[in-house]
Amino acid sequence: MTSSQVREPRSDAARNRKQLLEVATRVLATAGAETSMRAIAREAGVGVATLYRHFPTRESLVDAVYRDQVERLTTGAGELLARLPPRKALREWMDLFGDWIATKNGMLDTMAAMIEAGELAHAQTRTELLTAIDVLLDAGREAGQIREHVTADDIAAGLIGIFTVAHPPELERAERLLDIFSDGLRPPD
């Protein structure tokens, strides 16, 4: 079959895949430990065979969730800037980052094994995230809303620190710390 003959997935198959990805993301974000594939299928309202048809291994599901979350972060920077002032866009992006961190918590063992095996490009993800932060910082500096000397590495380190001490279920504490951190990015008067 040539590339022009490749069929698009049926609408129900595409819908099932999307549903599985959304449910897996939500379940992994709220699970204290890695959840079973069977539990994810049940939560998504599909049979386990449907789950395995889309994601033949736990690693393939984790990879898809991970890539989807990174995509949300990288495209999210531009989308937020299109509708919000830069400093507010950066603050909302911090919430997206928190969602990503929470999702990773439910798949840490699998991710660690995948990174060890070279199946997950951790360094590439870091570069993509720092680029997204730079987009937000550049817009904020240009608008005079963010200090000149703040770097993407500074933001990443601050976010990792915040979510290390205020991880789910401490959402209220995380919000408060993110607001304090965001306020500290304002240029001096």
Task: Please tell me about this protein's structure.
The chain is mainly α. The chain has a domain at 59-183: Tetracycline Repressor, domain 2 (Orthogonal Bundle). The chain has helices spanning 11-30, 37-44, 48-54, 58-83, 86-105, 108-116, 122-142, 152-165, 171-183. The longest helix is centred in the middle third of the chain and has 26 residues, at 58-83. The protein is elongated, with a radius of gyration of 19 Å. The model has no long low-confidence stretch (mean pLDDT 87). This is TetR/AcrR family transcriptional regulator. Residues 14-73 form the HTH tetR-type domain. Keywords: DNA-binding, Transcription, Transcription regulation. InterPro entries: Homeodomain-like_sf, HTH-type_TetR-like_transc_reg, HTH_TetR, Tet_transcr_reg_TetR-rel_C_sf, TetR_SbtR-like_C.
What would you say about this model in short?
The protein has 189 residues and is an all-alpha fold. It has a domain at 59-183: Tetracycline Repressor, domain 2.
